[in-house]
Amino acid sequence: MNKDKGKTIIITGASRGLGYALTKQFLLNQWQVFPLVRKNKDAKVLKTISESKCFPIVSDITDIKVQSTIRETIESHDGIDVLINNAGVGGSGVLLNETRPDEVLSLIDVHCLGVLRVTQAVMPFLVDEGILINVSSRFGSISKVSAGELDNIACSYSYRIAKAAQNMLTQCMCREFKDSSIRICSIHPGRLRTDSASMDADRTPEEAAEILFERLKSIKHGGFYSLFEEMIEW
Ligand SMILES: NC(=O)c1ccc[n+]([C@@H]2O[C@H](COP(=O)([O-])OP(=O)(O)OC[C@H]3O[C@@H](n4cnc5c(N)ncnc54)[C@H](OP(=O)(O)O)[C@@H]3O)[C@@H](O)[C@H]2O)c1
User: Fold this and answer.
1) Into how many domains does the chain fold?
2) Which of 18, 40, 43, 185 has a CA positioned 20 to 30 A from the CA of residue 176?
3) What is the pLDDT of residues 133-155, one digit of tens each?
4) Do the domain assignments include residue 234?
């Protein structure tokens, strides 16, 4: 990482939940933070946390314009050390006959294509030894789902499909960039008490943000980390 300046991070989905907690955590540690939010009012709230170190980006990751908006905001800065693709939404149809194809497409647009759009825009600015973290979920693990480990926890088809698609995108990038200095990984942040909480949620986003911050240095390329447990099988 670039050692001659303050570290810089982009975090998507920063208006609330884990993204908001991560934004506060990195600001607390004197990083420059570019939190991406959809609404101006959320950008204004974030700006009040740190006028000098917080530079909100207002955009929607399902809109291709997110790429030019990100580029225009960060090109005058001295490189990006870390990108956390965190923005996400839940789905509703838990059973086959409740699953609407349009909901599946819409969640893939956020969890997989949204990550693709943002990462394409940020990658040219990522510094040597930069880090890309995609926030996935235990529900995106085909190993866990197929082993029946999550059978008793309701989760939509669309969310599971979209996170599995994101995981494949992560692995495609891991293979492409295997010989570079960039580290790319995926994390399951834990069962967090946020607006998207699962029924077994037992941790706060602040706890997850603290652990993620501490783990940054030890993150290895290609891993699927669980912040409160063992590594996850893809
Ligand atoms: N909570 C959990 O237990 C849990 C477990 C595993 C994985 N995760 C994953 O962790 C991440 C964060 O989850 P969370 O619980 O913090 O969720 P959350 O509280 O529901 O917050 C979701 C965030 O994503 C943003 N977002 C949604 N769609 C977007 C779009 N199209 N463009 C830009 N931003 C968008 C939301 O913005 P608005 O405020 O504008 O809607 C919000 O900031 C998600 O990827 C989620 O799938 C969460």
Assistant:
1) 1
2) 18
3) 999 999 999 999 999 999 999 99
4) no
pLDDT above 80: residue 1: no
Q: Which domain holds residue 128?
A: 8-226
**Residue 140 falls inside a structural domain:** yes
- Predicted local confidence at residue 199, as pLDDT: 86
Whether residue 1 lies inside any domain: the answer is no
Best probe residue, ligand 1, of 23, 42, 63, 86 (max atoms within 8 Å of C-beta): 86
Q: How far is the CA of 39 from the centre of ligand 1 (A)?
A: 14
- pLDDT per residue over 145-196, tens digit each? 999 999 999 999 999 999 999 999 999 999 999 999 999 999 999 999 999 8
**pLDDT confidence bin for 4, thresholds 50/70/90:** very low
Residue 217 Cα to ligand 1 middle (Å):
24
User: What's 76's domain CATH number?
Assistant: 3.40.50.720
- Whole-Å CA distances, 151 to 10, 95, 145, 155, 156: 34, 12, 7, 9, 12
Task: Identify whether 3 is part of a domain.
Answer: no
CB neighbour class for 75 (10 Å; exposed up to 12, middle 13-18, buried from 19): exposed
